Amino acid sequence: MLPRPHRLRHEKDFARLSVKGRPMYGPFCILRAWKSGSVPSKIGFVASGKIFKSAVSRNRARRRLREAFRPLLETVPDGYDMTFVAKPEVLKADFIEIRATLVHLIEKLPVELARPWKRLPKPPRSRKGEIGYAKQLGVPRPPPKPAQSKAEGPP
C-alpha cells in the first residue's frame, strides 16, 4: 500500500477523475490525471470488473501496478490527482516493463495537462449522470426532458 497521505480514497474523487481527468495511454495501463492542487499528489489504482472477471486477477493487477509505482512516488510532482486503470496485459508483463511505462507516463504528465483538450469527454448516458457531469464541469443543469403522457402516445 501507498502511504495514507498519497492515497486516493473517496469514491467522489475517483468519479471526478473519470469526468475531469486527462487520459494518457500506455501499453499496460491508462493514467487519468487532473491538476487538483493537493499536496502531496493523490494516487489510486483501478482494475475493472468488466476486464478482469475474477477478484483474484483484479487484485493481482492492482498489486502489480502499485508495487511497480512505489519506488517512483518521490518523482511524482505535487498538485495532481491520478488513477492508473489496469489493462489485461499487466498480468503477463515483465515487472521492469511496467515500471518503465509508469516512468514514461509520469514524465509526460505536466506536458499533457498543459495542452488544451481536443474535445471534451462525453457525458454519461443516464439523466442522473448528466446532472452529476454538469456539476463536475460547473455548467448549468441540462433542461428536463419532456414527459410523454400515456394519452399522447405514438399513433
UniProtKB/TrEMBL annotation:
A Pfam family reported for this protein in Swiss-Prot or TrEMBL: Ribonuclease_P
Q: Which UniProt keywords apply?
A: Endonuclease, Hydrolase, Nuclease, RNA-binding, tRNA processing
Name this polypeptide is given: Ribonuclease P protein component
The record's comment on protein family reads: Belongs to the RnpA family.
Q: Which organism is it from?
A: Candidatus Uhrbacteria bacterium RIFCSPHIGHO2_12_FULL_60_25
Q: What class of enzyme is it?
A: hydrolase
Q: Which reaction does it catalyse?
A: Endonucleolytic cleavage of RNA, removing 5'-extranucleotides from tRNA precursor
| UniProt GO cellular component terms | ribonuclease P complex
Show the Gene3D superfamilies listed in the entry: 3.30.230.10
Hydrolase as a keyword of this entry, yes or no, is yes
Q: Which GO biological process categories is it annotated with? A: tRNA 5'-leader removal
Q: Where is this region: Disordered?
A: 118-155
Record function comment:
RNaseP catalyzes the removal of the 5'-leader sequence from pre-tRNA to produce the mature 5'-terminus. It can also cleave other RNA substrates such as 4.5S RNA. The protein component plays an auxiliary but essential role in vivo by binding to the 5'-leader sequence and broadening the substrate specificity of the ribozyme.
User: SUPFAM superfamilies per the record?
Assistant: Ribosomal protein S5 domain 2-like
Q: What are this entry's molecular-function GO terms?
A: 3'-tRNA processing endoribonuclease activity; ribonuclease P activity; tRNA binding
Superkingdom is Bacteria
Name the gene behind this protein.
rnpA
Question: How does this protein assemble?
Answer: Consists of a catalytic RNA component (M1 or rnpB) and a protein subunit.
Q: What is its EC number?
A: 3.1.26.5
